[in-house]
User: What shape does this take?
Amino acid sequence: MSTYSLSDGLASGAPGVSRAPLLAIWVRESGVGILASVAWIGFGLSCLWWEDVGDWSRTHSLGIAAFIVAAVALFGTVGADYLGSAGRGLRKRAPWLVALGAFLTLWEVATAKFAWLPLPFFPPPQSIIEVYTDDLPKLLDSVFASVKLQLGGYLIGATIGFLTGVSIGWSRAVGYWVHPVLRFIGPLPATAWLPIAFFTFPSSWSASTFLIALATCFPVTVLTWSGVASVSNAYYDVARTLGAKPSFLVLKVAIPAALPHVFVGLFMGLGSSFAVLVVAEMIGVKAGLGWYLQWAQGWAAYANMYAALIVMSLLCSGAITLLFAIRDRLLVWQKGTVKW
Amino acid sequence: MVVAALAESITHAAAGAALDIEQVSHAFDIDGAELPVLDDVSISVEPGEFVALLGPSGCGKSTLLRLVAGLDKPRSGTLREDENRIKSPHPSRVVVFQDPTLFPWRSVWDNVALGLEAQGILRSQRHHVDAALDLVGLASFRNAYPHQLSGGMAQRVALARALVNDPKILILDEPLGKLDSLTRITMQAELVSLWQRKGFTTLLVTHDAEEALVLANRVIVFSDRPARVKADIRVDRPYPRHRGDPYLADLRRQILGLLGLDATW
Assistant: This one.
């Protein structure tokens, strides 16, 4: 940026000399955006130029949409200086737009146009778009069911894990009883409980909630425990000489000090609970994205599978982003000290 | 001055308490072996006195401070604060440790408020927190987090955190030990003026003879572990004291002699 303003200053002094550097800067700043635009025009053309080998209804709209993206990429990067933070963001992500446009073009050509990849196992982009537009209600129902199941199980598991971890870390007596149980049951993958859970619990929904909670509970417990156990005695000494009672030591010393560890546990628990969620939905629960995947496979509706997979990955990465945002908010004091 | 007025507002009833350490012995268990650290230590401190405890490193001075604070119980002997036996920690006896041990998840203000919050009286005494921060000159850092502070600033916050509780006995465990020499000299002067203004009894552990002599009314010299009282030296000099004072230099020579350093310096 400083180079830019420097040559800007030169431009006003000696207009004749500055032409070339200005052009070079302009190309450097907007070149990738123009390239991105070209890639997306390529994608649009690949949609409209040849005839589809199969019968897909959204090919035309997809081509138009690709041209719109190309236009946005072009004007957005060329005019980025007038668009504030949106323009800067677009410029930063322009290389990804290039890659995405090229990938989509290749995908379109390799499936819908020349069928280099065997159909129906590799559906073209427009058939996935078709799923999102035509099968939306069912997909939304599945998303809703998955989120509900995951959220309930995860919250229960995280709460129980947190409370157990704090109690083991704090009380020797609780540790004596709970630690061996944890050692025995904890490492068992939660999915191993699937058969038992499905016939002991009254409904497949409660069985899955139990399994998700179980999968979340173990890492949260272990990391909360190690967090509480590793709090320096000096903090307790300071608090005690200032008149702190045991409840204060737990709530205001042990727990805040252990919080960075707790978040590692919550992160790991989230990962393992996703695995359990999908397996539970595929096997027992009659709703959710896992079930949708299974159903789509049964009907050989491969486009629906890819569509559901994309939604699933967006949800999982969204959940992790949310967890990180909460962590960053709660652990502002860590800024510049510890990161994991 | 505003700061002085605020300091008065904190002071109110607090004055020093007497401290009696009677025939205290203590030992640690290390892998089943008994390691004696304190051997029949008796010290009687008057209210408002500034006593420095000096001894070779690892001799057991810090252990004695922990006993005075009530963080540990002695194997034998008794400790009393104004005739009351010391059995557990109490905010009338506050410790400032060698490391500031500020809670990293709390802002400076919240760190200073810790004692009042723990005792459940923060709501009515919030102004004491502000006054204590003013007192150590860090009012403008109230919203900073500990990792943003320098070593000297962090130790000042630790001092404010202690002072906000109106201690009757202030226990200082080498609080200036890790600071650079310039900050150290400034903070020594600040300590003396705080002590003079507020009148609390002060117990300072140090291994720096000069620091002990510049600050204290009385310097108690300990032997090597297990610690025994080797000498009890009264320092009758007005404040502010000067490091170059020949009287102090003479005392310093005596003390270093007691610590076994006659010929080497």
